[in-house]
Write a structure and sequence with these properties.
The chain is α/β, with parallel strands linked by helices. Helix 8 runs antiparallel to helix 9 and helix 10 crosses helix 12. It folds into 2 domains: 352 residues, Alpha-Beta Barrel (TIM Barrel), CATH 3.20.20.220; 158 residues, no CATH class. It is built from 19 helices and 10 strands. Strands 8-7-4-3-2-1-10-9 form an 8-stranded parallel sheet. A two-stranded antiparallel ribbon has the order 5-6.
Length: 528
């Protein structure tokens, strides 16, 4: 009997017995895919072969509506423990996500890859809106709570604890960011994902092996021994152009690599041999670097998966060091967290790499403006817990909570002033659970296309939002917080999950009455 996905990962890391390889299977939009081209046939053939350790089924990739991942998994119940289901936050609110998780657990599908998800690109009859009721950090936190036994309101008052689940949950990180203010928030959010419950990591797609290695080095620097799975996508000229254009979030092909691809694509086989060799070499490098496993995508025929795996296995033990140097196609002026690339003499060097000195030199940018300084000043005076006028303001709001006409009138007046001022200066949507201080006074509900409160998604490109209509708020937040030496606090911040019950209420009042997420933040700080 084939070992389960989790067993394979554990064996690879702790027993060094093998280098397992998984395969990505994408479902279809509609039900017209039949016969030999069916994703069911593909997945079954892959899972029936010992060269494939697991199959990973995507959840509406690229923002397109498709048959759900658990439908395909439901056709393959004999391989329950060797299937990884992707679960993204873009199409369901937290209630829908929890329902999906209960269904997975009930059917025995315990391996999941948690993602925030891509922005929708289509829908019926026009473009759909993304849900993003929570992000990947919040969803991982939910999964962890379910694994511990989720406490829920009891029908007889009080709470009851539901039967614990046994999810083996992973997360993604995008190291292929060109600028410092994009890359460092990615790494810091990765730590938050692991703190929230991720037990394995899959980097997103790129073709710079130094960046893959850097993620591993970063986790080592944080004393986090979490299995990493090397992500390999078998390119074609068409797909490479899409990755290069930025049309697929989280997938990067640099101009230099695209030039090489176009050169090989003029050959008789249109670059087929080059693309397969590139994939096989990547697998070899991941094995040499000490990754727990490899992950192949971009293929629709079982024999293609097998041929690449076999080709990779034919390389000698040290070939990967040469391939590591070959497969480095960074973007222009690419920022690296570590100043120099270590020698490939040892894939698991115990020597700590040297951090890029730029991290230690806060620089004043256009994002450090007078308005931001004024916002910080106002927060320090009136809204910073137990500082300035906080106690006085809390006393006033507690008094206005009294149920008489004068207090109600004053409270409505103050709330109206709050709405008008915050809408004018911050685009406030009156969510009632203000996240401005957490994102350097940029409203995550208004200024972020995915309402990200726990760090950036992986979809930005050149510091621009995935929607390409604005700068990513987390790149601006990083510049601001780094300048004041405050961004390091972000890495250990508790999970922030918006409370929809506060919509349309006064965020000021909720702060002083400990009804918003800041109450949890303060409890965490007190426990340190």
């Amino acid at each position: 009997m084939k070992s389960s996905f989790s067993e394979k990962i554990q064996e690879s890391i702790f027993l060094n017995r093998c280098f397992p390889v998984g395969a990505e299977v994408v479902t279809s939009r509609g039900i017209s895919v039949r016969g030999d081209s069916s994703p069911v046939v593909l997945a079954r053939e892959l899972l029936s072969d010992d060269r494939i350790s697991w199959v990973s089924i995507t959840d509406n990739p690229g923002g397109n509506p498709m048959l759900p991942a658990d439908w395909l998994a439901g056709q393959l119940t004999e391989f329950t423990h060797n299937i990884v289901l992707h679960l993204a936050c873009k199409d369901y609110n937290r209630a829908g996500l929890e329902s999906n998780l209960w269904r997975y657990a009930a059917e025995g599908f315990n391996n999941i890859l948690v993602l925030s998800g891509d922005l929708p690109v289509t829908g019926y009859p026009k473009l759909a809106s993304g849900v993003f009721d929570m992000d990947s950090v919040g969803l991982l936190d939910m999964v962890t709570s379910m694994n511990h036994g989720l406490p829920v309101p009891s029908r007889r008052c009080g709470t009851e604890t539901l039967t614990p689940t046994v999810f083996f949950s992973g997360c993604v990180v995008n190291p292929f960011k060109q600028n410092e203010n994009e890359l460092i928030p990615q790494y810091y959010k990765l730590v938050r994902k692991i703190h929230a419950g991720a037990v394995w990591v899959l980097p997103q797609l790129g073709y710079d092996m130094r960046k893959f290695r850097e993620v591993k080095q970063f986790l080592h620097s944080q004393n986090l021994n979490v299995p990493m799975i090397g992500n390999v996508y078998v390119l074609t000229k068409t797909v490479a152009k899409m990755f290069n254009s930025g049309k697929l979030a989280g997938c990067v092909v640099s101009n230099r690599l695209l030039e090489e691809i176009e050169k090989y694509s003029t050959g008789q086989d249109k670059g087929k041999q080059y693309f397969r060799e590139l994939a096989a070499k990547q697998l070899a490098v991941f094995k040499g670097l000490g990754f727990a496993a490899g992950y192949l995508g971009g293929i629709t025929k079982p024999e293609s998966f097998f041929e690449i795996i076999e080709q990779s296995n034919q390389y000698s033990g040290n070939d990967w060091k040469q391939f590591y140097q070959e497969i480095q196609f960074p973007q222009p002026n690419e920022f690296y967290l570590f100043e120099t690339d270590f020698s490939t003499e040892s894939g698991n060097s115990s020597l700590p790499p040297t951090l890029n000195l730029n991290l230690k030199n806060p620089q004043k940018t256009k994002n450090i403006n007078l308005f931001y300084r004024f916002s910080r000043l106002v927060h320090a005076i009136a809204f910073h817990r137990d500082h300035g006028l906080y106690s006085t303001m809390k006393t006033i709001f507690l008094f206005l909570n009294k149920n008489n006409s004068f207090c109600r009138f004053c409270f409505r007046l103050i709330h109206q002033i709050e709405k008008d001022v915050k809408h004018l200066f911050y685009g406030c949507t009156d969510c009632g659970d203000c996240g401005l201080p957490d994102t350097a006074y940029l409203c995550p509900m208004n200024s972020c296309s995915k309402n990200m409160r726990n760090g950036p998604c992986g979809g930005s490109s050149k510091s621009r939002c995935e929607s390409n209509d604005k700068d990513c708020i987390w790149t601006i937040a990083y510049d601001r917080l780094k300048y004041f030496n405050e961004f390091d606090d972000f890495i250990n911040s508790p999970v922030i999950t918006y409370n929809a019950a506060l919509k349309g209420t006064s965020a000021w009042s909720n702060l002083y009455h400990d009804r918003d997420h800041n109450a949890n933040l303060s409890k965490t700080q007190e426990n340190k």
